[in-house]
Specification:
The structure holds 2 protein chains of 2 kinds. By secondary structure, chain A is mainly alpha-helical. Chain A is built from 22 helices and 2 strands. The N terminus of chain A is likely disordered. In chain B, the strands form 4 sheets. Chain B has a 6-stranded mixed beta sheet with strand order 6-7-8-3-9-10, with helices on both faces. Chain B has a 5-stranded antiparallel beta sheet with strand order 13-12-11-14-19. Chain B has a 4-stranded antiparallel beta sheet with strand order 2-1-4-5, covered by helices on one side. In chain B, a hairpin with a 2-residue loop joins strand 12 and strand 13. The chains are: A mainly alpha, B alpha+beta.
Chain lengths: 572, 381
């Protein structure tokens, strides 16, 4: 080009690497991302590190190598509880997966009537602490149980009770995974199989099962981990049958033997980490199975199959409802089983040990704070991770840190918090024993699922919103508040409800962190049961359930109204 | 609407670009973009003149979108400079540059009405409410959506959404309009209509515009100049007529329009020997004797009607296949005595008048002035 300007001379391609100046928005986002990383380091990574350190610490402090693990292996009482835990977890997983698969199959692949009702009933266990089914089982099959005869002289206190309780409590978790796996079926495969004259059994084994194998693997690991790390059910109904999770509790809370508690915590971490890795792998494969052009499978009515599905689902649903029903019923009677007249005396929490109504109010406060701050943190954090330009390393690290809690059982998270925050030298030591630490710990405990939900919602947005905003000279925070959050509102509310319900029902992490001033309802259930006040314990568990159900219901209503009104744009 | 300086700009757009004129609006030098070991843009130089509509044309992965995003500052280049209106902008973030952009997906804010989408950038400029309202009304009028202002994007057709995106991009009166495949999500009929509308609007506003497309027909109809790109490099820059009539490389010849490629060898400076036939060139070429060459002619340039009158560059062919495509017959001819195949577009009249049918033998002429020649071995598509 014949231009007089000297600049027109072509530059060698590699002469000057171009570094773009950062816009103010981008600086803010990067700073935000670093803050998020710092927050996650303090609330997730460092407590875990404290746990590791404690497991390898000698009696006088200092590094002790594997001495603590050797001591563990040499204690028969401890290794027997490992064995017990494996037995119970294996049994519970087998039963739970079988039932959940049947239920999920009926919901997705048959035309059984009342699908949405069955689906709703199956989520009931999510709304209660794991203590509730255990208490209900005591009422049903305990020494004064209604149906004690059904056990033929066996005791509910022990493996039988634990397995039944755990199956109840983990059922919805397995069901969600399996329903997802089963609903992503490609109708064309079934049509092809039919055209090739394959028998129904052959179709099931060659088309259906292979398509859901990753879902099955994923569900198996998730349930196994949930059972082995849960301590609510064995605490109430385990009797003298010790399991791993109980050992942690006894060591840390009972004997103040932190090192041994840390060792057992590390052992609990193994299945959880394994499950995390397998689940990530399986989900990627599962997503790859369904191509974009797949035709969704629509079940055809078949009286025989639908009838069988109905009977099966009805039985499972009845079992779930009767466990819940017994707890509700028992909480409202005068004196089980001798005086079944109606009474509210079990709800007179202020006259019992365990924290009284104050603990319920504390729980409400804790759940509300967790929902508000957790949702704001998680959604903003996910947005920073997704939408910050370049800065690849920090984004990747923040995403990883956000997923880490998924591999950490609540119990392990809780003792990590104890080890980390109990140190007077820790600048955050002042949080110890406060409401804030309960909120922070609960947010950390449930961070990953919420983060993934937020990321999924954000990924559905047009990736060019931020580019458009930049070209229009609109600051990014405005687009975040005016567009991103409103469009993602259903997901935001879902995350808030998730945090609230889990904060209401959780026992595992917070049991190590509450103080007399910050008693929680779920812990009150535990303590009242421990003190022999089973009926008030049931009453409090029912109260937690009712609160969670109320919030879930309110969420459903709110989303429906939102979609109908402010989100008119969703419909064409 | 009364666009500022519209008449002057329209006059400018009439001119063919030449270096006598003032400074280029956009001056790109040595632009290189690497993603790890992959080079998406290799040392690209380009000038865009004020008021012209330039199209980046090429197959997917050729670097056209990368170039556009570098100009916008969305994905900054690895090396090289970009000057806009005399100002070096390479280091500026997108928000500090002066452009409006329309994406293939439109990226309309789904929860805002058409009005609020268009006004979105105006709120950041500290204008009064009245000013904003007037400007939005003006823009709605400009794209013909005045009656749709209170609808949400999802309630509009694809073409209407596209116009909203255009109005939003124009709201701040940018000096440069960037269009990233703005029409490819639309069906054929709407695409043709909107293409004309965009061109008309661009002329009226005299707005310097860059459009990215992989559709050669779109590039030919809409552009002042076309930048044909392949594998991160510019193959040719020229007016649509230049690019079509005088492709600079075999790639351009193949990518823009349809083209016959005949392999041969230089028999004399102005003669090419094909397998079993020899063709005269309009002018001698400066290639070593006996070089291997590619001879090109477009299917519609193959002459049948007067082929009998002149023996110049005449070959005898047999009709191998005829595909009726509505406006003409896409015909495959086999040159007798050779292995060569030649595609020709035969008008319905010619077919009727000459009684052409599969198996028929007829003389065809390849006019010397229509033949283009490239050294063999240059990459095609």
């Amino acid at each position: 080009m014949a231009s007089p300007r000297a600049l027109a001379a072509p530059l060698p391609a590699s002469a000057r690497p171009v570094r773009q100046a950062l816009a103010f928005d981008e600086r803010v986002m990067r700073a935000g991302l670093l803050l998020l990383l710092l927050y996650l380091a303090i609330t997730v990574v460092l407590p875990l590190w404290a746990l590791f350190a404690k497991a390898f610490e000698g009696p006088e402090g200092g590094f002790a190598g594997l001495a603590n693990f050797a001591a563990y292996a040499a204690t028969p009482a401890l290794t027997s509880s490992l064995r017990n835990a494996l037995v119970v977890a294996t049994l519970s997983t087998a039963i739970c997966i079988a039932l959940a698969f049947g239920y999920a199959y009926a919901l997705t692949r048959t035309c059984l009537p009342g699908k949405s009702l069955f689906a709703a009933v199956a989520t009931v266990p999510l709304l209660a602490p794991s203590l509730l089914p255990a208490i209900a089982l005591v009422y049903l099959f305990g020494n004064q149980g209604l149906a004690r005869w059904a056990l033929f002289g066996h005791s509910i206190y022990g493996p039988i009770g634990i397995v039944i309780g755990e199956v109840f409590w983990t059922f919805p978790h397995a069901l969600i995974i399996l329903t997802t796996a089963l609903s992503t079926a490609d109708a064309r495969l079934y049509e092809a199989a039919l055209a090739l004259k394959a028998s129904p059994a052959r179709i099931f084994f060659t088309v259906t099962l292979p398509a859901v194998r990753y879902g099955l693997i994923s569900a198996t690991f998730v349930v196994f981990t949930l059972v082995i790390t849960d301590f609510g059910v064995p605490k109430v109904i385990g009797g003298s049958y010790n399991v791993l999770a109980l050992d942690v509790y006894k060591h840390v809370v009972g004997q103040q033997n932190f090192r041994m508690g840390a060792v057992v915590g590390m052992i609990l971490l193994v299945p959880a980490v394994l499950s995390f890795v397998v689940d990530r792998f399986a989900q990627k494969r599962q997503a790859a199975l369904l191509s974009a052009r797949a035709v969704p499978y629509v079940p055809k009515p078949d009286p025989l199959v639908d009838g069988a599905a109905f009977v099966f689902c009805a039985l499972v649903a009845c079992a779930i409802l009767s466990i819940l029903g017994v707890a509700v019923f028992a909480s409202f009677v005068n004196f089980w089983p001798y005086d079944l007249s109606f009474s509210l005396k079990n709800y007179d929490f202020d006259n019992m040990d365990g924290g009284g109504w104050e603990s319920y109010r504390n729980s409400l406060e804790m759940a509300t704070l967790t929902a508000v701050f957790g949702t704001a943190l998680v959604f903003t954090g996910a947005w920073l991770v997704e939408k910050t330009r370049a800065f690849v390393w920090v984004r990747g690290l923040a995403h990883l840190a956000a997923l880490l809690p998924l591999a950490v059982p609540g119990l392990v998270m809780g003792i990590g918090y104890v080890f980390f925050f109990v140190e007077p030298s820790n600048p955050f030591h002042f949080l110890y024993g406060s409401m804030a630490i309960l909120v922070v710990c609960t947010i950390a405990h449930f961070y990953s699922v919420a983060h993934l939900a937020a990321v999924t919602a954000l990924k559905q947005l047009d990736p060019e919103f931020e580019a458009v905003s930049a070209s229009l000279k609109v600051p990014l925070y405005r687009t975040f508040l005016k567009v991103t959050v409103p469009v993602c509102l259903p997901a935001v509310l879902d995350i808030a409800a998730y945090f609230f319900v889990n904060a209401m029902t959780t026992v595992s992490a917070v049991v190590f962190l509450y103080s007399p001033r910050t008693q929680l309802a779920s812990i009150a259930v535990l303590n009242m049961d421990d003190a022999g006040d089973i009926a008030p314990a049931a009453a409090m568990a029912v109260l937690i359930f009712a609160t969670s159900a109320l919030v879930r219901g309110a969420y459903a209503l709110l989303v429906r109204r939102l979609l109908a009104r402010t989100q008119a744009w969703r419909s064409r | 609407m009364a666009a500022p300086g519209a008449p002057a700009a329209a006059a400018r757009a009439e001119q063919s670009p030449n270096t006598e004129r003032a400074e280029p609006y956009l001056r790109i030098r040595g632009l290189t973009k690497r993603f790890g070991a992959f080079t998406a843009l290799a040392d690209v130089d380009l000038d865009v003149w004020p008021g012209e509509l330039v199209t980046f044309l090429g197959p997917s992965g050729c670097g056209k979108t990368t170039l556009l995003r570098a100009i916008a500052g969305l994905d900054p280049q690895t090396a090289g400079t970009i000057e806009q209106a005399g100002r070096e902008i390479s280091r500026l973030p997108a928000s500090a540059r002066d452009f409006g952009i329309v994406f293939q997906s439109y990226a309309l804010f789904p929860n805002l009405t058409v009005r609020d989408n268009i006004a979105y950038g105006l709120f950041a400029t500290r204008r009064s409410k009245r000013e904003i309202e007037t400007r939005v009304a003006e823009l709605l009028e400009l794209v013909g959506l005045a009656d749709q202002a209170d609808k949400y994007p999802a309630q509009l057709s694809g073409g209407q959404q596209q116009r909203v995106a255009l109005a939003r991009a124009l709201a701040l009166r940018p000096g440069l309009l960037l269009l990233d495949e703005p029409l490819s999500a639309l069906d054929a009929r709407v695409r043709v209509r909107l293409r004309a509308e965009i061109r008309d609007l661009q002329r009226r506003l005299g707005l310097t515009t860059i459009l990215v497309t992989h559709d050669q027909e779109e590039a030919l109809t809409i552009s002042d100049r076309i930048v044909v790109m392949n594998r991160g490099r510019i193959e040719q820059v020229g007016t649509p007529e230049e690019v079509y009539a005088r492709p600079a490389t075999p790639f351009v010849a193949d990518f823009v329009g349809k083209m016959n490629f005949l392999e041969g060898r230089l028999a004399a400076p102005d003669r090419v020997a094909l397998a079993g036939a020899e063709l005269r060139l309009a002018a001698p070429v400066a290639l070593p004797p006996a070089s291997r060459v590619l001879l090109c002619i477009r299917p519609e340039e193959v002459v049948l009607r007067e082929a009998a009158r002149s023996t110049d560059n005449r070959l005898l062919a047999e009709v191998a296949a005829m595909d009726f495509v509505g406006s003409h017959y896409a015909t495959r001819l086999r040159i007798l005595g050779t292995e060569l195949a030649l595609f020709a577009e035969l008008s319905l009249n010619a077919v009727r008048d000459l009684g052409i049918r599969p198996g028929a033998r007829l003389p065809v002429r390849l006019p010397a002035e229509r033949l283009r020649l490239f050294p063999a071995g240059e990459p095609r598509r």
